[in-house]
Amino acid sequence: YINRGARLQLDNSTLDRSQECPGNWAGIHVIGNGARTHQGISVASITNGSYPATIDDHGVFYSKNNSAIKHANNAITTSTDANGYIPPYYANWGDAFGGIIFATNTTFQDNWRAVEMLEFPKVKSMVQSQMENISTFNNCHFYDKVTIWENHNVKFNNCNFYLDASNPTGVFGINFTARFSGNTFEGIQSNVSPARTFGINAS
Questions:
Q1: Nearest Cα to Cα of residue 164 among 138, 143, 140, 192
Q2: Going by fewer Cβ within 10 Å, which terminus of the chain is more open, N or C?
Q3: Could you give the angle at the alpha carbon of 112 between the alpha carbons of 110 and 117, nearest 5°?
Q4: Which of 91, 147, 146, 152 shows the shortest CA–CA distance to 121?
Q5: What is the pTM of this model?
Q6: CA-CA distances (angstroms) from residue 52 to 31, 40, 90?
């Protein structure tokens, strides 16, 4: 877990399973604060390490310089737990969502899923600019799928997606918006697959 107020930085490093454990490991859980927006958080504060600054700030995962995550169930997720467990210090569903993921020159390979982003923010009465997610992927290599549920303005810049028939969709999301710039998709049936629940547009 990367808890609120904490950050994990990978710099030219690889996270992988132990040779003694042939199965997948759980992956990284980035805990956020569902009641706080990402508005006002700068990219510079993520990359220079000045954010998070308080124990109630969103947790941060930051990777760069040819780092990699391999053989995980979910390489990175903003869920509290793969089985839906909510720690006692988060009273309600959504309290812990909104963890920040900022990955540059990072490879996601041989995972069941590369990235899982869960509903954020918790309060839905905000204006669009307050609901935007700062999470960004630059020059990353995805050999595993990405799923996004009700997050907005997630950015993918100059990334490469290499999937196959067993994992045919690069990015699948429900009620989400994202910005794609300069990406390539190879060997997959569907580059980006948006879906929506009743009354909400998919973008």
A1: 143
A2: C
A3: 120
A4: 152
A5: 0.91
A6: 12, 12, 19
4 pLDDT exceeds 60? yes
CA dihedral (172, 177, 181, 184) in degrees, to 10, reads: 10
pLDDT at 199: 41
pLDDT (mean) for 103-112:
97
At which residue do the structure tokens 């923010």 appear? 121
139 neighbors 133 (Cβ within 8 angstroms): no
On whether the CB atoms of residues 39 and 58 are closer than 8 A, the answer is no
Q: Report d(CA 190, CA 168) in Å as an integer.
A: 6
* Contact indicator for 100, 135 with CB cutoff of 8 Å: yes
Helix (H, G, I), strand (E, B) or coil at 153: coil
Residue (of 153, 88, 85, 154) closest to 115 by Cα position: 154
CA gap 28, 61 in Å, rounded: 9
Give the chain's mean pLDDT: 88
Phi first, then psi, for residue 25 (nearest 5°) are: -90, 170
For 46-61, the pLDDT digits (tens) are 999 999 999 999 999 9
